[in-house]
From TrEMBL, chains A, B:
It comes from Arthrobacter livingstonensis. Catalyzes the conversion of L-aspartate-beta-semialdehyde (L-Asa) to L-homoserine (L-Hse), the third step in the biosynthesis of threonine and methionine from aspartate. One of its GO terms (molecular function) is homoserine dehydrogenase activity. Keywords: Amino-acid biosynthesis, Methionine biosynthesis, NADP, Oxidoreductase, Sodium, Threonine biosynthesis. Residues 367-453 form the ACT domain. This is Homoserine dehydrogenase. Its cofactor is a metal cation. Belongs to the homoserine dehydrogenase family. InterPro entries: ACT-like_dom_sf, ACT_dom, Asp/hSer_DH_NAD-bd, HDH, HDH_cat, HDH_CS, NAD(P)-bd_dom_sf. Pathway: Amino-acid biosynthesis; L-threonine biosynthesis; L-threonine from L-aspartate: step 3/5; Amino-acid biosynthesis; L-methionine biosynthesis via de novo pathway; L-homoserine from L-aspartate: step 3/3.
Length: 454, 454
């Protein structure tokens, strides 16, 4: 390296001193010398903007750094680290930083999932770098590998465990046989679930990260609204047990994949095909030997399939103040090195505009749980119905058998059936499920879970 | 991105058209448009230097690109991809490229493991970029994450399964109970082992990669000679079975870790401590729940422990023409993007000079296999000997019991014992093993394996 000019200083502004921000500040201060050696310039933390200067912090930080005037702080900085979260005032401050010519490092997945595209364009136009590794999968380097290391490859599919709360809950249910409610209570007790866990358990957090991963992986731009999202609240202990018996595990996955489907009728290329990308979040059955099945507790992992590289997986802690701070500091040092070397920063490339495909375009395997009358001929009627709708059955297992109750009204006993299909389209599967619900011998459809990795 | 000047062309020279080179050429030609869109300039393959223009190739490539004059080709190029392997003429050609101001992308682990330091310095001095993701762990992005994503963190330990041949063999032995010889034969049959597998099974290949990983992870420079290396040729089916019984798996790991040891006597800071790095390759026992234990067949994975990020793992295919080509192309596009944007390329940072510590500095747990006389008092004598040498025993299990043979000379039956120690230094363990060998009740020490991940 050219002899580093260690008297050169870069002014760093930190917006937010919460869970992650406090750790970033701590590391910038405690490791200032090591960071300076690696960067080639001193990273001087010149201010920390917060809403309430007197709020208690996880880390003891110099009182004189705190300010409530985030805007003024941004205008003094070479590098702005935005860790406030939320849409505003984060968006406005990021735009001010870009306008001022400051490099921006953010972890704001919610903002990027809805507004990423316009922010990336503005950063590119201003020739400033906007980095956001911390927005997806905490400590795990994933965005930089996708953008840079796989720049010469073609990603075909991304499957991510990107929400630690839901992975902990499902893993707990799998390990202990607990109900969803009990596992959620344990997650809350241990701090893996927030007081209001809605964003996590309904899959919205995973969906935001899925949109960001999809955008980078497929060189086009997806937003939260493009993601088909289903959380884990309907997953039962029975589903988990049946999965386990059959050699599967249930994970909440964010899945982005390139698909080629018949072009819509009436479209210019009707009769031809359309290639696009589907982005979805839902509970998914995976074989227990799949690398993603070995991801326990609140850990995250992103599994990528690329044309040349084949299968790759990136694993680590998806959240937490200090792990996420690692991702922030990686972006800060990388961007700062570029400022020291000179020359324009890296830009976002959007080279394709692949259309968003809805979940209807997806073909996958399904596992359907049924509560059916335990009578002769039921299996035959169910099979026939599937066949009518063009869905082939791979396996059918009876998992529970309940005897006729002597006191009941003469109805027979019932059986719980698990049916795994061959690959089928969402549309045909939905039609099949509707038809099954109409059969008199079916008490209820207890679950419909998609199956991947087989 | 600023409107890409797609009429701008970068001249790419390829040195070598073997396993990996042929695939790199294929991708450069087949995906020229997609690569141009991502790079912002056309990547024009202007020549492929080989020893024998008429040799059969894995891929059909345009005959007019081939040349035997590598030196002339290098001098025409903006980007030189070296995939010849071996020390010379690769080293000379890389130096010519650097002198000529061309960006260099290489996969040459053997060369980098012995000569990396001087090549990095020359590239830095000439302000050209030297990238080598393909030199370690095939398709898996690992060097870029370490260098860039973890730039703001402090790595404390790296444990890698970086040789597919040995991982396949050990995994085969674990899955099927095969002997080492049979597993090696199967590996050879399937193409996971070369005709002469020495470099792989003796651990030299893993050691070269370990040196490169250690250099990047600890911001200092290690060479092949700094690595304590032991291969898998002494691992037996009995070792694997005993490990399995106890809930462990055996993997060949390259381990680089930062250690603090008492300073040597007579040194300036005698009485103080020395912090350095130990780099070693040897068969290792890991708990079956460890993420590295889920790495099967010829897959590779690198497990990193960092101060802020915590545990991370990068998993994927460690070898193969097309997977490795992905890593090469990632480096090519990344470096080319920089050439298009302008400004100096990234440089290597060596900010520390952490001393190399030999394996004597390591403290770890050990699993020792003994063939002992099956007599009363033997366990007591063994325990006493361990205690004398300061090594604590964690568990002792008798795994096999052989009856006294009626025809033998009156000696008793024998027992196979497996002893797992608490953490102990290499020195005390070595002394213990030597003393044990001297006991009359010990027939032989059948194996000594280090244990990690517990």
């Amino acid at each position: 390296m050219p002899a580093p000019d260690e008297t050169k200083t870069l002014k760093v502004a930190l917006l937010g001193a919460g869970n992650v921000g406090a750790q970033v500040a701590r590391i910038l201060l405690e490791d200032a010398d090591a960071l300076a050696a690696r960067t080639g310039a001193r990273l001087e933390l010149v201010g920390i903007a917060v809403r309430n200067v007197h709020a208690p912090r996880d880390v003891e930080l110099p009182r004189e750094l705190f300010t409530t005037d985030a805007s003024a702080l941004v205008r003094r900085a070479d590098v702005v680290i935005e860790l406030m979260g939320g849409l505003e005032p984060a968006r406005t401050l990021i735009l001010e930083a870009i306008e001022h010519g400051a490099t921006v490092v953010t972890g704001n997945k919610a903002l990027l999932a809805v507004d990423g595209p316009s922010l990336y364009e503005k950063a590119d136009a201003a020739r400033v770098q906007l980095s956001y590794e911390a927005a997806v999968a905490g400590a795990i380097p994933i965005l930089r590998p996708i953008r840079d290391s796989l720049a010469g490859d073609k990603i075909t599919r991304v499957m991510g465990i990107v929400n630690g709360t839901t992975n902990f809950i499902l893993d707990q249910m799998d390990t202990t046989g607990a109900s969803f409610a009990d596992a959620l209570a344990e997650a809350t007790r241990l701090g893996y679930a927030e007081a209001d866990p809605t964003a996590d358990i309904e899959g919205h957090d995973a969906a935001a990260k899925g949109a960001i991963l999809a955008s980078l992986s497929f060189h086009t731009r997806f937003a939260l609204e493009d993601v088909d999202c289903q959380g884990i609240t309907a997953v039962t202990a029975g589903d988990i047990a049946a999965a386990k018996d059959a050699g599967f595990v249930i994970k909440l996955l964010a899945i982005a994949e390139k698909l080629t489907v018949p072009a819509a009728e009436g479209a210019d290329d009707a009769g031809g095909t359309t290639t696009g990308v589907s982005v979805r979040v839902h509970p998914t059955l995976l074989p227990r030997e799949h690398p993603l099945a070995a991801v326990h507790g609140a850990f995250n992992a992103v599994f990528i399939e690329a044309e040349s590289a084949g299968e790759l997986m990136f694993y680590g802690q998806g959240a937490g103040g200090t792990p996420t701070a690692s991702a922030v500091l990686g972006d800060v040092v990388s961007a700062a090195r570029r400022l020291v070397l000179g020359g324009p920063g890296r830009t976002e490339t959007t080279t394709g505009v692949l259309p968003v495909l809805g979940i209807d375009a997806v073909t996958t395997k399904y596992c359907i749980g049924l509560d059916a009358a335990d009578q002769p001929g039921v299996l035959a009627r169910i099979s026939a119905l599937f066949a009518e709708h063009g869905v082939s059955i791979e396996t059918m297992r009876q998992t529970v058998h309940r005897e006729r109750d002597a006191h009941d009204d003469g109805a027979g006993g019932s059986a719980e059936l698990r049916i795994v299909t061959h690959r089928a389209s969402e549309a045909s599967l939905a039609a099949t499920v509707e038809a099954i619900n109409g059969l008199d011998v079916i008490n209820s459809v207890t679950s419909v879970l998609r199956v991947e990795g087989v």
